[in-house]
Amino acid sequence: MIVLKTAEEIEWMAEASRIVAEAHEVLKNEVQPGVTTLELDKIAEEFIRDHGGVPAFKGYRNYPKTLCASINDEVVHGIPSTRALKEGDIIGLDLGAIIQGFYGDGAITVSVGSISTQLELLVKVTRQAMEAGIDQAIVGNRLSDISHAIQSHVEQHGFSVVRDFVGHGIGRQLHEEPQVPNYGRPGQGPRLQVGMVLAIEPMVNIGSCHVRVLDDQWTAVTKDGSFSAHFEHTIAIQATGPARVLTTVH
Questions:
Q1: Using one digit for the tens of pLDDT, what is the confidence trace for 20-31?
Q2: Which domains does the chain have, with CATH numbers?
Q3: Most buried of 134, 170, 208, 226, CB within 10 angstroms?
């Protein structure tokens, strides 16, 4: 069942999402060669708590940390550790916050120092694919219009969309209905309505779309070892005009 949110509930979600966006701004400035993902995790948790939020991921299905920090061929759900970043890496930073029982969720991919032209394109295309999906998040469109826009943009540039992980509804739970695949034919699924709040999050690989989960039961990596990028916004469908992006810095 898709739970529609009231205007008041969306404002709480906007507050949680703003904390996520501001935490990302802080983390971007900390990403540099030599920094460990454990250090980034500590910064993220302190920031969320200092701003009145609760880390959404810590303890979720027994996940041990605040941040998902996914480096290079890690697609999503990389667990922070003593691994240090190196020049030329890319890192996906995925995190969530809770305010008054409502969730915000977002992800960015950041370069570590100078990266190759191909990786620059991967990061750019992944972000643009998310934006293309959000552009379709208007009243009257169908859910798969978002999915199709994402897939089309990615494949135009020769990359592949991960299919094993998808976007999702969000609200009083981190993951709610509906699932939001990053691929599919247009014109399918439920019509988009005012009050729907969705997490739009393409995960894009340089190589094939296939992934596998490591023995830690969390970290998903590309099967072929190719690099992967990930972006995510929490958005609310509005009565008129484009969707409202909640994961923004005010």
A1: 999 999 999 999
A2: 7-244 (3.90.230.10)
A3: 170
